[in-house]
Amino acid sequence: MNIILLSGGSGKRLWPLSNNVRSKQFLKLFRKQDGGYESMVQRVYRQIMAVDEKTEVTIATSHSQSSSIRNQLGDKVSICVEPCRRDTFPAMALATAFLADERHVSRDECVIVCPVDPYVEDTYFQALKQLEQLVEEGNANLVLMGIEPSYPADKYGYIIPAEKASVSKVLEFKEKPNVEKAKEYLQQGALWNAGVFAFKLGYLLDKAHELIDFTDYRDLFGKFETVKKISFDYAVVENEPSIEVLRYIGGWRDVGTWNMMAEVMTDQTLGEVILDETCVNTNVVNELNIPLLCMGTKDLIIAASGDGILVADKERSGYMKPYVDKIETDIRFAEKSWGTYTVLDAQPGSQTVKISLHAGSRLSYHAHQFRDEVWTVVKGRGCTVIDDMEQEVRPGDTVSIAAGCVHTLIADTEMDVIETQIGEEISSTDKRVFERQAKKV
Amino acid sequence: MNIILLSGGSGKRLWPLSNNVRSKQFLKLFRKQDGGYESMVQRVYRQIMAVDEKTEVTIATSHSQSSSIRNQLGDKVSICVEPCRRDTFPAMALATAFLADERHVSRDECVIVCPVDPYVEDTYFQALKQLEQLVEEGNANLVLMGIEPSYPADKYGYIIPAEKASVSKVLEFKEKPNVEKAKEYLQQGALWNAGVFAFKLGYLLDKAHELIDFTDYRDLFGKFETVKKISFDYAVVENEPSIEVLRYIGGWRDVGTWNMMAEVMTDQTLGEVILDETCVNTNVVNELNIPLLCMGTKDLIIAASGDGILVADKERSGYMKPYVDKIETDIRFAEKSWGTYTVLDAQPGSQTVKISLHAGSRLSYHAHQFRDEVWTVVKGRGCTVIDDMEQEVRPGDTVSIAAGCVHTLIADTEMDVIETQIGEEISSTDKRVFERQAKKV
Fold first, then answer.
1. Angstroms from B432 CA to nearest CA on chain A
2. ipTM beyond cut 0.85
3. pLDDT digits (tens, 9 = 90+) for A27-86
4. Are strands B339-347 and B372-379 parallel, antiparallel or unpaired?
5. Across-strand partners of A340?
6. Chain A contact for B346, CB < 8 A?
7. Measuring CA to CA, how many Å separate A185 from each of A156, A194, A238, A252?
8. Does the beta carbon of B401 lie under 8 angstroms from any beta carbon of chain A?
């Protein structure tokens, strides 16, 4: 089975835990059987493997997410990086071309496209196997999964099937209706459109060439910025007469808001949290390393991270986007391919950052024009390279890097370094990366 | 007028803003007319000066508070430091001996003892002048201020006056009653005991010599640890037949809990706080430099500092002591005579601290046995002294201090320094201060 997981937008709907570089699918909020925690993307990948460990998983995503995916899933998945965001049809076209040209998947093989963030039972992934069978049977060009609605929701699109059987031809698609309309649809046996599409690779490849002028994967990658933004629904689904839908009746949740997330969090609290005995229906996620005490709170979601603190009535938590959009904060925490970056202190003229590197990883070889930096090693061993000069470092060692000097840090073991940045204009854009690698590299 | 302000206990009742080194009277929560903020102790001192700018104010307190008092009130007040805590009678005896022997106040002068933290109108301090007059008239040995009760409170002691006149002899004192008893007292015209006592200096000096064996201030200071703990009420008030009380009918509040504090805070929010339009009766104090967003919150007190985060229903906020007592945190923020100390990051084997010094101030000349330290200057200019070696420093400079080296930092201008501590046993007790001063000193 070939699965393409669409790992979408940045989004601040789970602010302050999610931000422009940390999407909600990477938040480790779900308890694993071994006691640790896993993210949505780890959970989904684990569930896929449990159903069929030979599944080839490709994640279609932006460059900014690829470090998080590598950190969380390792090298087990393929990543198809979109040079820029162009909506779902171009993304699926690129991923399909990637499978054909880079992974040599044949035109006859089934490909299933699926969002990366459904909170579902394992039966959902077993249903994906059924989708594959339906595609192989070839009674339709496109096979969708429809979710049996649990209430007349106004936030999903609807699929109107020809009959109420488990598998049916699709009569029609409906945009997000109001609640009254939704009730009517439910009486007709309508299903929620969960964004799961199955087809033969050749089918989508042909559609892609029909609508976009390109030769192969690399060509499409190169001209991706010029491709028109359009969703798969508009570009393909609405014009395709031969569609089947598989009715899925198991648990399914879209955890796009804190209120939804609170319902599926395994633990009522995460992090250093104390609830007194009068707290009711309160969920807390505390990523800060200071205690958070709740007294007599009711129906609240509380989330704290280096980016900010949210205290929200659960019902109201879905409406926070306009408020969060107004908050202009520099990113204070970021997951990188080499580890993590945490801003400890920022003031005019200087910034103090904690850099944690995985064993064996390294920073890029780079320079800043407008700031000096000082590294103080507080944990682990490694090597710094400053303008080609290598130096072994260990806890207590400091290295001063004047503006303009090209520098990198190579971690032999896990390393923690306190970086002090000094300059009138400290900006994440003041960075030039150099190709040339140090001798040790 | 001589006023002794009793600046009491550490207390965590306003946690996470108050802690063992930062008492609630030093929190700058009250807006001044010039737009800045002032603390309880600053507010009370300003109010005293507004009534009589010639008042001599002495603050009786512990060593741990004297830096905060000096930072907030400067040299305008005398500080009578108690070597250890011995309850109110020994504290008042020491302060009285201090006034007699160090400030040469005569036995006939009036002294008024007053808590440092009443939230009151200016008329309260005008009433202190009346107390002084009553003491000078000499109809009683002790004159108290009684607060006209606004409700039958069970958390204050009561004074039963002989008559309902503005000034009356005192018949009796009552311990904190239950609400039923309190209602009875109110019908008898009883007053709350607010802990304000006025007397001639000689009166209390004699009582002190009666109950404690000492010669003068320095002698009492030296043996303070051996003095029995006893409150002024038990030691003196309950045995004194000649007491008058002045009835005070203006506004008076004891802001010992967050709920009370919320009522008197000038601004609903302090710090970087956003309330959406559905928030009701929510007060927020955010000392962290990250945004705090509230959505649809109701009847809440929220307070965030480097020590922790509190989210409490206002009614419940008075009951947090047992929960806070269980929170074991190292102090993450402290106000010192030379500036402030803020822990930015702590992990096994290292700790990163931001040290901010006032212009012209210096750290003690000290050494640590079990940790190395690295200073990185990020703002200002000054001089370090390491084992007698002086070195001028400016932003970007680093200084490494091996365990055992005696070191200090002297700030010529305002300075900020990032201190990285490295060692297996990092503890605030690992510090030895040396008398010997560096050459520049």
1. 21
2. no
3. 888 888 888 889 999 999 999 999 999 999 999 998 888 888 988 998 899 999 999 989
4. unpaired
5. A335, A356
6. yes
7. 12, 16, 18, 19
8. no
